[in-house]
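Example record used in the benchmark description.
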Amino acid sequence: MNYPKFKVCVRCFTFNQADYIEDAMNGFTMQQTDFPFVCCIVDDASTDEEQKVIKSYMDRHFNLSDSSVSYKKETNYANIIYAQHNSNKNCFFAVLLLKENLYSKKESYKKFEYISEWSELCEYEAMCEGDDYWIESKKIQKQVEFLDNNSSFAMCYSSVSCYSQQKKKILSQKDGGPYESFRDLLNINVIPTPSTLMRRSCELEYLSEIRPETRNWLMGDYPRWLYYSYRWKIKYMKDEVFAVYRVLGESASHSTNYSKTKAFVENTFEISRFFAEYFNQNELYNNDNLNRNLFLVAFSFGKLDEALLKFKIIKNKSKSLWIKYIICHSRILYNILGKFFFVVIK
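Model output (structure tokens):
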């Protein structure tokens, strides 16, 4: 197959997001660029009819005629649809509808192999999961222009708006922001995934050197940002808001389950500890931040005994932590004042 000279590969890995995936695809097809780009949408064998939604979208918005550049094929792992958008001639989709769920088999890394036919042709890569979506039609155009003119930067990103699925509205507080150094990023992840664009050469170096598929990490984005931050520069595009991050009631990073939330926090700091050690920057890692976060998680879930234990080993205690600590000592006070500290009483 003779493909166009794609500049950007958009990675969209999705599972059971039938209610949201059209928003993501609309964000892709709205992109106005002076170069061709390909969106690789990989559905991980969804069980909520998301694959039907994706196929219907392709039928309505893409040229699948015999005279077009489109094709459909079946492999041992997926049904694949490749096509060009009806009106946006620079937009191409490569849809892979997987037959087996790779996540449950702990083989999610294979998704990268499956899209290599298109990603290997590209200079840049962007990421947007199936429940998030882009709102700026010039997102990838602006980001490509910046990286084309700034070779020392591995990636650029912006803040994003947050949409509460429960409240059905955009929240006032945005996610993401600037940081000054690798040290800052070790303490908190301020880079929202759906806003990013990265150099594929940097991504390949990360995959080859770190081999994230061999690590027991609960997230794929934060390790990348830490690696990029240490090796190269990352640009925060402060005047832009490229995307919307959808806050769901239950996800990897947001859960109503205490054990899952605690495990996610611990895994996040395991990742930061790994990169501090890997780059011989152990003095930059602050274990106090982990204990502080675990205290706050236990406090917010009403696990007061665990919160008190964590509080004891926090070295630098802020005024707000001391207030929460005092509240912890009185369950009556906790039940009265907890809601004023954004506590969800379980």
